[in-house]
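Entry, Tuesday afternoon. Goal for today is a structural model of the target with zinc ion bound, before we commit to ordering more compound. Inputs were pasted exactly as handed over by J.K., no edits. I checked the ligand SMILES twice against the vendor sheet because last time a stereocentre got dropped in transcription.
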Amino acid sequence: MKIKFWGAAHTVTGSSHLLLVDGARVLLDCGLFQGSRKIARQINSEFVIPPAGINEMILSHAHIDHSGNIPGLVKAGFRGPIYCTPATQDLTRVLLRDSGHIQESDANFLNRKKSRNHEPPVEPLYTMDDAERAIPLLRPRSYDEPFTVANGRLSAVFRDVGHILGSAFVEMTAAENGQTRKIIFSGDIGPPHKTILKDPEVPAEADVLIMESTYGNRCHAAEEDVEIKLADCVNRVVARGGKIIIPAFSVERTQEVVYALNKLWNAGKLQRIPVYVDSPLAVNVTEIFRHHPECFDQEINQSLIDDPDPFGFEGLIYVRDVMTSKRINMLRSPCIVISGSGMCEAGRVLHHLANNIEDPRSAVFFVGFQAENTLGRKLVDGLKEVKILGDPYQVKAEIVIFNSFSGHADAEGLRAFAGNVAQSGRLKKIFLVHGEETAMAALKETLGADLPNCEVIMPARGEEFEI
Ligand SMILES: [Zn+2]
């Protein structure tokens, strides 16, 4: 049997790997590669093999860099079932529709420019209709419920990995010519003690491990008490009459911030000001969280006894429509606005930033990783002048950085995960994926020293290995 690497090879996006077992072809994830428009378009249009030849797919979690190219796969001929957990099914449904809309809007924007230059138009990578055609292929399988794929040649089971709602690592047993191989695909591994979600489960033994390496060279700093810091910072800004803008991803981070504010509100530690979640996608995603308490950890389950809605409190207002979003900008009194995108690259948060960034009373709270060259990164790096929606602005608002919200295990967490898989001495190969070059290389070195009997490989795009 073989494995062929296609996406998230020496990079963090576009997760996609192909397992070849006794003639069957099973795809692990089909993520969108994110980068400059031209390169992304080319990479996202190429598939590891013609999609009609792929029999089935296993999806680790709903994040768009793992699921976002499924409509493209379906558009190109894939018709097989896509196995995922029930929460992943619900989130993927919403995220793929949103992604189809973004792809269409992006192509429209580009075509307006092209028509001015008398250039031929481009087609969107895929459309909302393609996303609709992909959605019925999703097949839910609960955590710890074994299922078979490839006509019984591969058995698989999802285990909770605590990264986002519904996220899983996949334990698989493949059989070919009387030989069996145990394979684990980590998906993205969550950190321990993450709010809302359960801790990652301990993986079983395996012969082969395909593992993410996002924070392969980093250890998270000792945790700050996020609720104390949040309450202090909010109350400080409110006291001077400012507004608080929180750019946040729609999946997980928004709910984490809302849940923290909900707890502070209930405890009477938060000023009674309005809190807006200004993002239609985040509103839809939060509704999905409410439907999946099976993914919640003990703390939030316990809190449900006194407060049946951990994502709603008296001062919290969910905003879908544009008119209400615009009205928030007219408000003169203090409030909190949670809005996307998380790295300030697009979306409604740009309008809120443009309206508040020059006001020294206001503040921007950063609760997520800010990639290079994004507006979020420029603000985190302390630039005094930035461009928002094409216009220059002086940065006078306070910039506050929260480090405790993280979706990924750090180097120690990754090391522990691999250590557990290797414990019985059976593990022979670790393939590192989903990481920047330096993070991956650092982790390779660490794991090489930890596990001398194990080969640690950083596969390139298109590389195939016998396993
Ligand atoms: Zn992820």
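The chain has two domains: 2-218+407-466, 226-401.
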